[in-house]
Amino acid sequence: MPAINIPEKCLHCGACVGVCPKQAIVLEGEKIKIDKKKCIECKACVLMCPVGAMQIKR
Q1: Would you give per-residue pLDDT tens digits along the chain (58 residues)?
Q2: All residues at 6 or more sequence positions from 20 whose CB lies less than 8 Å from its CB, including other chains
Q3: DSSP E strand stretches across 8-50
Q4: d(C-alpha 8, C-alpha 39), whole Å
């Protein structure tokens, strides 16, 4: 499951939101929320994060 691994690195840029094929990630203010039920663990959000703040957690 993707997660914000390093929250202080997150720029809230929305790159992960825009790349998610299932719209499982939303940006609410300055918080990234991931809907675990929608996520298919494709890792697109992890690959697109420009600062490496996202990581897959099991």
Answers
A1: 777 777 888 999 999 999 999 999 999 988 899 999 999 999 999 999 999 999 887 7
A2: 44, 45
A3: 25-28, 31-34
A4: 23
* Helix or strand holding residue 55 (H, E): strand 54-56
Tokens of residue 11, six digits: 């720029």
Q: How far apart are CA 56 and CA 4, in angstroms?
A: 9
- Tell me if 44 sits within 8 A of 20, measured CB to CB: yes
Domain architecture of the chain: domains with CATH: 2-56 (3.30.70.20)
Q: Which H helix or E strand runs over 2?
A: strand 2-4
Amino acid 26: pLDDT: 95
Residue whose entry in the numeric block shows the structure tokens 């990581």: 55
